[in-house]
Every structure is written in structure tokens, then in C-alpha cells.
Task: inverse folding
């Protein structure tokens, strides 16, 4: 889990507004190769927005974002090619509703990487096996449980051999008994050295696998610390209040 | 996330209890009685006015009558089928133009869509029948009928397609972007296939409209079912019987179209929709 020195993702002085709302305020964040960064903070603090700017699902107003030292492409083929290198897992899974599980996983490799069909399918089956849903390969997404769908979504991202992965509250839409099956897959990925940015409120996950916790509130990064330090000795009042509220009643 | 195959009716009403069942039974009996009375009076009226007389119906036993009607039917089917295909292609193009990034193209497509949609098809037909020939462009009656019907339908279909595209969840597009698909591939592989499935019922309603539009073929003297029926009516002086038969044929055509749609929706919808695969009928 050793994070090397090269920052694979760099955000410098990033600002973004939605109309009057200043959702990202002077964000500076480096993510190193092999690092797992957990983003945490109250609802509406801008975690999703930050996460989505990294693969340019959201544009930024000012500042810069670099990936492997280069500014993100702004549009067209270059942007698509860049996004192919970054996996993204959404809260609501977003599996392609009209395609089988297998086709969900092979679509990217076949259309973007031009992998031959048989190779793509073989690899997809291995990935589905790995996340434990190989038996469902020929079903459609609506026939799977939430936990299974999310594991397929992870497999779909992995099929593109991403250099980094973004997770936006991957377990928030899941029933409690399905959360662990998804977290297990993510823990495994982290062990293998995947670079990950994870928006989550799962404290156990954060403690177990993250290298760093980034606490956001009102569009700002308020605190950055190792998980133990953050959860045991939060520095700001905002963070203390937040932790009290999620540890709960 | 799991959508359900419940029909609208299932969604609106809960399972009937004993009271509702009794009320439904009473309602059924009352409507059947009313229907019976209505049919009785219609037939009695026909009898009184002598419409049931054999001479108004016997020509229906002749093969030539049916051959003539079938020729008309074939005309109707050709116009409807060709219009259906052209209007879908054109409607799709208009919609794609309208949602494109180019402001100019988008504006042009919006104007055309609204124009085709708001003009009555009969007016468009007159335009192709009376105005265009004045400028030396002659075309056979088939096209004078098919083109305006296609144009009118394409305007409506462009809007139908656009509604379908808007109904595809944004997350589908974002997921497609995140695996690196380019804009064109997202449209063709993710958005359109889902949008088409969503709008199948509206597409079919529009096809029914197209079939009904063909009945103005007499304007351009194109021999469709309606036009040939008119000829028979004047030959045999058999208004009621002929209209009766033609009405039934149109009902059968549209019944067939509707069933085709249910079949299509079922076949493609199955994939998207739900694990409780109950009968959608
Ligand atoms: N497309 C948009 N247009 C306008 N405002 C938006 C848009 N998307 C998000 N916002 C606003 O930006 C703020 C930050 O949203 P964001 O989704 O990043 O928060 P979050 O930290 O992910 O919250 P949550 O924990 O609820 O997911 C919120 O106040 C939200 O209402
Ligand atoms: Mg969020």
C-alpha cells in the first residue's frame, strides 16, 4: 500500500459554481499512485462534484486538474480516451439497462479498446467471476440485486484496465446486508494497489483501507489526515460535529 | 432500481374487495343490457329503412367486389407502410438534428418539426397535388399522397423520439461517458436503443394515424381502400353495407398494428423490465 511520490491526480486551486452556489472553493488535492483517498463530509458539501470533476463529468470554472502531470483534455476523442483510463462507480450503479450483464462488461473493451469479441468475453467472465456474479452473466441488470449490480458496475470499470478509480457513494443505495459484498470487492482492489478516490461514509472501510481521509464542508477541504488520526482526533469543530452525527444517536 | 411490469391499471387500482366485486358485476350487467338495446334499435332502424334488403348486400358475395376491395387495401397498405418507414427515418433525423450541438441545425430542425406537426395532412396533400405541379414537378398519385403523409407524421415522430431520448436516465449517459465511449457511440448504442423501447406505444399510435390519413387518397385519385369503396358504393348504391364492411377492415388493420406493438414491446421490454415477468396484457 506504499504510496509512491508521483501524484497521479493533482488538483490546484479548483473552483466551481452552480449559479450563486460556490460548490468547490479553492480545492487543492494530490492523489498518489496506489493511494486510497476517502472523501467524507455532510450532504451538499461538494464531494460528488469534486469526484466528478476528476473525469470531467463536471467542468471547473478555474484552477487546474492534472492527470499523470498533464491537464485534462477538454472535449472530443481525447476526453473520451482519457475517461476510458479512469473507472467510475456510481451510487445508482447505472448499468446499461438494455444490455446483458456480460455485454455491460464487454461494451467498453470492444468499442473503445477494440478488443476482439472472444477475448473481451473471456476477460469479462474472469472479472465477473472475481466479483462473484459470473452465474448472472446472461441476465439483464433489472434481474439482479443492488449488491450484484454494483459489483457488475465495478467489473465494467475494471474491464477497461483503469489507472485510477472513482467511487461516488457506491454503497449508499444498498440494503445493509449487501453493503459488505461490495466493500469486500473494493478492499480487494485496494490491496492490489489500485488508485482510488472514494466518497463514502463507511468508517470501517475508511479505517481499514484508506491512506488518507479528506473531510469536506461547504465546498472546502477542511481537514486531511490519516484515517486513525481523523476519526480519533478530528481537529475542526465541523469534523467533530459531523463525526458525532454519523456515529449517531 | 427494480422496475416492475405492473400495467397502468394495476397501478391505479388495488385488488378488488367483495364490495367492489359486486359493484363491478352490476356495472357489467347494466352495460351489457344497454349495449343490447342499442344494437336492437340500430338493426330495427336498418330494417325499417330497408337497409337489410338483400340487394344492398348481395354484391358482397361476388369475387370481383372483393378483388376490387383487396386492390384498394393493397394501395392503403403500400402508402401506409412506405409513409411509416419514411416518417420514422425523417422523424429520427429531425430529432437528432434538434438535439445536436449545432445551434443552426437545431433551429432548422425545430422549425421543420413544428411546421410538419402543425399543418393538417390534408393541407400538405393539397400543396403537393395543386401547388407543386404548377411549378412543373409532376409525380404519380402514390407519391403525392405518401410524401405529405410522411411529412406530417415525421413532425410528430420527431417529438415522440425526443420525449423518448429525454426519458433515458442521465446516469446511463454518464456511465457510457465514464467508460470512454464517444458521443456518437453513446447516442447509437446506449440512448437510442433505450429511447426506442420507451416510445414503442406512441410509435404505434402514430402508425394508426398514418393509416387513417391514407383515407384522403381520393383527393389525388389514388386507389386506396376508401377510394375503391366509394366506387363500389356508387356502382351498387350500397352506402350502409359498404361502409360497414370498410369500417370493419380498418378496425382489423389497426387491431393488427396494436397487437404487433404489444408483441414488440413485450419482446424488447422484457429485457429491461423486471424479474416479475407477468403477462403485460
Ligand atoms: N447540477 C447542479 N445544479 C445546481 N446545483 C447542484 C447541481 N449538482 C449539485 N448541486 C448542488 O451542489 C452542492 C454540492 O452537491 P454534491 O452533490 O457535490 O454534494 P455531496 O457532498 O455529494 O452531497 P451528498 O452527500 O448529498 O451526495 C449541493 O448543494 C447541490 O444541491
Ligand atoms: Mg453526493
Result:
Amino acid at each position: 500500500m506504499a504510496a509512491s511520490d508521483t501524484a497521479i491526480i493533482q488538483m490546484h486551486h479548483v473552483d466551481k459554481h452552480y449559479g450563486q452556489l460556490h460548490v468547490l472553493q479553492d480545492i487543492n488535492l494530490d492523489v498518489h499512485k496506489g493511494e486510497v483517498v476517502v472523501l467524507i463530509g455532510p450532504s451538499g458539501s461538494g464531494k460528488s462534484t469534486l469526484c466528478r470533476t476528476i473525469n470531467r463529468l463536471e467542468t471547473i470554472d478555474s484552477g487546474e486538474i492534472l492527470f499523470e502531470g498533464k491537464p485534462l483534455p477538454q472535449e472530443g476523442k481525447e476526453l473520451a480516451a482519457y475517461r476510458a483510463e479512469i473507472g467510475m462507480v456510481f451510487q445508482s450503479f447505472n448499468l446499461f439497462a438494455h444490455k446483458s450483464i456480460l455485454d455491460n462488461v464487454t461494451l467498453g473493451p470492444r468499442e473503445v479498446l477494440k478488443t476482439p469479441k472472444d477475448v473481451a468475453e473471456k476477460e469479462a467472465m474472469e472479472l465477473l467471476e472475481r466479483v462473484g456474479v459470473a452465474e448472472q452473466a446472461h441476465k439483464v441488470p433489472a434481474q439482479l440485486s443492488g449488491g450484484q449490480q454494483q459489483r457488475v458496475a465495478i467489473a465494467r470499470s475494471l474491464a477497461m484496465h483503469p489507472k485510477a478509480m472513482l467511487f461516488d457513494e457506491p454503497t449508499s443505495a444498498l440494503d445493509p446486508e449487501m453493503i459488505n459484498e461490495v466493500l469486500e470487492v473494493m478492499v480487494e482492489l485496494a490491496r492490489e494497489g489500485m488508485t482510488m478516490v472514494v466518497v463514502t461514509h463507511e468508517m470501517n472501510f475508511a479505517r481499514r483501507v484508506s491512506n488518507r481521509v479528506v473531510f469536506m464542508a461547504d465546498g472546502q477541504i477542511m481537514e486531511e489526515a490519516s484515517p486513525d488520526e481523523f476519526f480519533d482526533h478530528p481537529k475542526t469543530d465541523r469534523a467533530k460535529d459531523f463525526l458525532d452525527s454519523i456515529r449517531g444517536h | 432500481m427494480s422496475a416492475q411490469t405492473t400495467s397502468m391499471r394495476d397501478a391505479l387500482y388495488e385488488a378488488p374487495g367483495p364490495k367492489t366485486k359486486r359493484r363491478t358485476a352490476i356495472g357489467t350487467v347494466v352495460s351489457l343490457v344497454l349495449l343490447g338495446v342499442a344494437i336492437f334499435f340500430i338493426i330495427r332502424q336498418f330494417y325499417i329503412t330497408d337497409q337489410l334488403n338483400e340487394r344492398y348486400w348481395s354484391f358482397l358475395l361476388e369475387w370481383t367486389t372483393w378483388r376490387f376491395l383487396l386492390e384498394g387495401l393493397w394501395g392503403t397498405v403500400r402508402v401506409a407502410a412506405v409513409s411509416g418507414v419514411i416518417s420514422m427515418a425523417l422523424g429520427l433525423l429531425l430529432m437528432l438534428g434538434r438535439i445536436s450541438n449545432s445551434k443552426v441545425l437545431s433551429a432548422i430542425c425545430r422549425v421543420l418539426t413544428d411546421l410538419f406537426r402543425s399543418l393538417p395532412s390534408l393541407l400538405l396533400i393539397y400543396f403537393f397535388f395543386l401547388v407543386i405541379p404548377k411549378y412543373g414537378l409532376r409525380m404519380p398519385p402514390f407519391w403525392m399522397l405518401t410524401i405529405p403523409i410522411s411529412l406530417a407524421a415525421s413532425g410528430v415522430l420527431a417529438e415522440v423520439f425526443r420525449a423518448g431520448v429525454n426519458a433515458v436516465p442521465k446516469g446511463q449517459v454518464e456511465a457510457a461517458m465514464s467508460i470512454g465511449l464517444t458521443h456518437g457511440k453513446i447516442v447509437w448504442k446506449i440512448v437510442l436503443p433505450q429511447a426506442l423501447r420507451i416510445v414503442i406505444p406512441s410509435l404505434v399510435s402514430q402508425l394508426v394515424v398514418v393509416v387513417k390519413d391514407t383515407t384522403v387518397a381520393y383527393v389525388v385519385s389514388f386507389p386506396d381502400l376508401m377510394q375503391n369503396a366509394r366506387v363500389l358504393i356508387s356502382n351498387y348504391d350500397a352506402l350502409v353495407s359498404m361502409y360497414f364492411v370498410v369500417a370493419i377492415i380498418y378496425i382489423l388493420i389497426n387491431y393488427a398494428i396494436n397487437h404487433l406493438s404489444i408483441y414488440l414491446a413485450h419482446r424488447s421490454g422484457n429485457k429491461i423490465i423486471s424479474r416479475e415477468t407477468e403477462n403485460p396484457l
In short: The beta strands of chain A are 7-18, 21-32, 36-40, 62-67, 70-71, 86-89, 164-168, 195-199, 212-217, 220-225. The mean pLDDT of chain A is 92. The first strand of chain A starts at residue 7 and ends at 18. The CA atoms of residues 201 and 246 of chain A lie 8 Å apart.
